[in-house]
């Protein structure tokens, strides 16, 4: 049985509480929050396990069309992997930590079939920033600070940060962030192309929902195909172009395509 069924809170209809995360889905928007505010929402093994389990559930939930990931409170989105769990681990264990997390959480989010937006409400450091980088879009409140402090621990990012950061900000800025370990403000992150939008602290979730709702005006099959095809842009030998051709063609066989084109030609809104 999944933890989702086991730990469902009987007193609340819509919000499902686990030990370290909560999930709610209203009006087709799922909100997944990390709830370890006393530990700056640091991602310990339990939290990562819960995230991995709930992601499987959300992907199958037909009422949930898109997902917002955020952190509880106003201080932190997530201040990284839980450093206390690293102490005394061997090389092999270090690799296993990175491999398990990448496969079950970070890559899972990147390859999600529904749009996922990180609503960054405070510190997004190390693994917390990697969580945001794995999302399809990032929106941050003005107070947010982002960085990769791993070098100060004698480490490097291990949940995809060295790979996903340069794709967004370029190799030079990625080198600067990772090698200095210094944090940058939401405004700088926006200027660098690391995040898509900066909002006021109180507007963050509202603005993030608005962004998803603007996506939901369109064919959900087109959205998931677009996500997949954009990811193909990093494949070697320009393979992405061929994948785009195939996926473009596949969409011609969908009812959403038929309706979308008919609606345009008949000068009306598409019927869902
Ligand atoms: N892992 C484990 N615990 C963490 C943590 C992390 N990544 N980040 C914060 N915490 C814990 C602190 O140890 C502290 O716990 P305590 O109250 O039991 O002592 C609690 O969260 C609050 O953090 P604190 O440092 O007191 O808050 P602050 O406002 O002074 O500073 C940060 C906030 C985020 C700047 C600071 O906590 C920090 O630098 N965290 C580590 C970031 C990091 O290196 N991440 C990469 C991990 S690979």
How far apart are the termini? 34 Å
Strand percent estimate: 15-25%
The spatial strand order of the largest sheet comes to: 1-2-3-4-6-8-11
CATH homologous superfamily of the largest domain, by name?
2-enoyl-CoA Hydratase, Chain A, domain 1
Q: Ions, cofactors, ligands: which are bound?
A: coenzyme A
Number of helices: 10
Average predicted confidence as pLDDT? 94
| Helical coverage, percent range | 40-55%
- Would you identify the regions where 5 or more consecutive residues have pLDDT less than 50? 1-13
As for the CATH topology of the largest domain, it is 2-enoyl-CoA Hydratase, Chain A, domain 1
Count every beta strand, where a strand is a DSSP E run of 2 or more residues. Answer: 11
**Helix/strand structural class:** alpha/beta
Protein model, in words:
With 272 residues, the protein is an alpha/beta fold. The chain folds into two domains: 13-215, 2-enoyl-CoA Hydratase, Chain A, domain 1 (Alpha-Beta Complex); 220-265. Helix content is 45%, strand content 17%. The protein is built from ten helices and eleven strands. It has helices at residues 3-6, 45-60, 91-110, 127-134, 161-180, 186-192, 204-215, 220-231, 239-251, 255-265, and strands at residues 15-17, 21-26, 29-34, 66-71, 76-78, 116-120, 123-125, 137-141, 145-147, 184-185, 197-199. The strands form two sheets. A seven-stranded mixed sheet has the order 1-2-3-4-6-8-11, with helices on both faces. Strands 5-7-9-10 form a four-stranded mixed sheet. A hairpin with a 2-residue loop joins strand 2 and strand 3 (29-34). The chain is globular, with a radius of gyration of 19 Å. Mean pLDDT is 94; it is low at 1-13. The site of coenzyme A has 16 residues, from strand 7.
């Amino acid at each position: 049985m999944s933890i989702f069924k086991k730990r469902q809170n009987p007193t609340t209809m819509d919000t499902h509480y686990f030990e370290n995360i909560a999930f709610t889905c209203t009006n087709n928007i799922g909100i997944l929050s990390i709830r370890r505010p006393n530990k700056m929402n640091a991602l310990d093994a339990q939290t990562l396990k819960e995230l991995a389990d709930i992601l499987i559930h959300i992907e199958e939930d037909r009422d949930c069309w898109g997902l917002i990931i955020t952190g509880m409170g106003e201080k932190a989105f997530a201040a990284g992997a839980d450093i206390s769990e690293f102490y005394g681990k061997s090389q092999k264990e270090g690799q296993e930590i990175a491999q398990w997390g990448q496969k079950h959480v970070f890559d899972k989010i990147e390859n999600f079939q529904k749009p996922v937006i990180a609503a960054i409400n405070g510190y997004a450091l190390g693994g917390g920033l990697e969580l945001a980088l794995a999302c399809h879009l990032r929106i941050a409140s003005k107070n947010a600070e982002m960085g990769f402090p791993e070098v100060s621990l004698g480490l490097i990012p291990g949940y995809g940060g060295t790979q996903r950061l340069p794709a967004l900000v370029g190799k030079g800025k990625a080198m600067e962030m990772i090698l200095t370990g210094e944090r940058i403000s939401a405004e700088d992150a926006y200027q660098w192309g690391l995040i898509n939008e900066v909002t006021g602290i109180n507007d963050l979730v509202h603005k993030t929902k608005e962004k998803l709702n603007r996506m939901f005006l369109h064919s959900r099959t087109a959205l998931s195909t677009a996500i997949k095809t954009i990811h193909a842009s990093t494949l070697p030998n320009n393979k992405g172009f061929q994948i785009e051709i195939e996926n473009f063609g596949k969409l011609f066989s969908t009812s959403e395509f038929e309706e979308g084109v008919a609606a345009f030609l008949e000068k009306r809104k598409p019927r869902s």
